[in-house]
Write a structure and sequence with these properties.
CATH superfamily of the largest domain: P-loop containing nucleotide triphosphate hydrolases
Structural class: alpha/beta
Strand order of the largest sheet: 2-1-3-6-7
Radius of gyration: 25 Å
Number of strands: 16
Distance between the termini: 61 Å
Number of domains: 4
Oligomer: single chain
Largest sheet: 5 strands, parallel
CATH class of the largest domain: Alpha Beta
């Protein structure tokens, strides 16, 4: 296989020499340019697999070069070299389309990791999205746009923030970004930030050494170390307490973590992908989420459409889910579904999105005669609300709606179930989330037969 070629843009001879030596030891060829003018001429006349540019140059800055490469050579990843601690410029470069950044003084291992990731990216036209293990079922325009954006984000190392309603498929999107990128062979580590007890968070994220606290009988690897070389997916990141947000920000910026009880930091090479169904902008304004952390994780954002925004995908998605349910139940033949049942599903607004659709189908399958789901099997009177009979807020999950606005039993039951799942079946916390008293929640649990 022919050696890869890297373009280095820096007017400091010592930095150029350091990078050239590092690349040569990795078996890569390199060319150097001292300014933007020479760099543009080189990249326009020769083939390069990666571009590394300093942020400050005699005739401009690295952001300009990022823009030039994005416009004229979009298949070439470009990384920037920034002054130590200048995260504002690093984030600006990432937002402009930079693959990644490395700070001065250049850490050789971080540089090697960056170069290795950039030079092993799949070609933009290889159709990696079609062969990835995780996919999104649907042929609607919004799904097509989402898949295209995922493919583009997979060719970067920039932190990604995914927002969307509960059950819309945020983790699926995160997995697709991971699987279509250069980290696909490494670990994808998902973590629900709301499910970790506050007193164990630091140990869970960063690990601990033996004897660091009561019960620490062995060294333990944290989630950052487990995801080293791969991607760490922080689901429901809004649930992190403020003190943990500070520590998470430092780990992301320094690309290193300190296990509880350890004397030294451990370098980690992790891509951060985070998600929440809550409005982080509002939480920042309310002082519940740190603005500097939000700025750092929300370099690039991507929105996952709700199921009601792509109702034309429901027939295809239903067939796919029924096939999966049949395989789980070891059925010889995938169940069928009547036209009336499909029409009923397409007239429902799904506060729980795809997750709710799967639950409805699983329940209906248990009630169906002759392995064919009919409209009556969907329990329409209880669980399915027609679109024109209820509110359809596109920016918030049903669990966030006050209980007195839920005018149909089906939506109310769905909201209660989501609140219970979100709070890990803590009835007191679920009642608070729903705006109910504990007595009111208990009454509804008994009413709906929820145990």
């Amino acid at each position: 296989m022919a050696a890869k070629h890297v373009l280095i843009i820096d007017d400091e001879p010592d930095i150029c020499e350091l990078i050239e030596i590092t690349l040569a030891r990795m078996g890569l060829n390199s060319r150097s340019a001292k300014n933007l003018t020479d760099a543009r001429k080189l990249i326009d006349s020769e083939h390069f697999d990666l571009c590394l540019t300093d942020m400050r140059l005699p005739d401009g800055d690295g952001i300009e070069m990022v823009g030039y490469v994005q416009q004229n050579h979009p298949d070439v990843p470009i990384a920037v070299i920034t002054a130590h601690g200048n995260m504002e410029l690093a984030v600006k470069a990432l937002k402009a389309g930079a693959f990644d950044f490395v700070s001065k003084p250049v850490d050789i291992q971080i540089l090697r990791n960056l170069v290795s990731s950039a030079t092993t990216l799949p070609a933009a036209d290889t159709g990696a999205g079609e062969t990835a293990k995780t996919t999104i079922t649907g042929q609607s325009l919004v799904v097509g746009d989402l898949i295209s954006k995922i493919a583009k984000l997979a060719r970067s190392q920039a932190p990604v923030f995914i927002h969307g309603e509960s059950g819309s498929g945020k983790e699926r999107v995160a997995r697709m970004i991971h699987e279509q990128g250069s980290r696909a062979e490494a670990a994808f580590v998902p973590v629900n930030c709301g499910a970790i007890p506050a007193d164990l968070m630091e140990s869970e994220f960063f690990g601990h050494v033996k004897g660091s606290f009561t019960g620490a009988t062995n060294d333990k690897e944290g989630l950052f170390q487990a995801a080293n070389g791969g991607s760490l997916f922080l689901d429901e990141v809004a649930e992190l307490p403020l003190n943990m947000q500070v520590k998470l920000l430092r780990a992301i910026q320094e690309k290193a973590v300190r296990p509880v009880g350890a004397e030294h930091e451990v370098p980690v090479d992790v891509r951060i992908i985070s998600a929440s169904h809550r409005n982080l902008d509002q939480l920042v304004r309310e002082g519940q989420f740190r603005q500097d952390l939000y700025y750092r994780i929300n370099v690039i954002d991507i929105s996952v459409p709700s199921l009601r925004d792509r109702i034309e995908d429901i027939p295809l998605l239903t067939q796919q889910l029924l096939k999966t349910l049949a395989e789980k139940a070891a059925l010889e033949k995938a169940p069928g579904i009547s036209r009336g049942a499909i029409d009923a599903l397409m007239d429902y607004t799904f506060p729980g999105n795809v997750r709710e659709l799967e639950n409805i189908l699983e329940r209906a399958l248990a009630l169906a005669d002759n392995n064919v789901i009919a409209k009556k099997d969907l329990a329409l009177n209880k669980d399915v609300a027609p679109k024109n009979a209820r509110q359809t807020t596109s920016t918030s999950a049903a669990v966030d709606a006050p209980a007195d606005s839920l005018d149909l039993e089906g939506q109310e039951k769905s909201s209660i179930m989501q609140a219970l799942e979100k709070t890990r079946w803590n009835k007191t916390a679920a009642a608070k989330l729903l705006g109910l008293s504990l007595r009111q929640l208990r009454y509804r649990l008994e009413k709906f037969g929820i145990e």
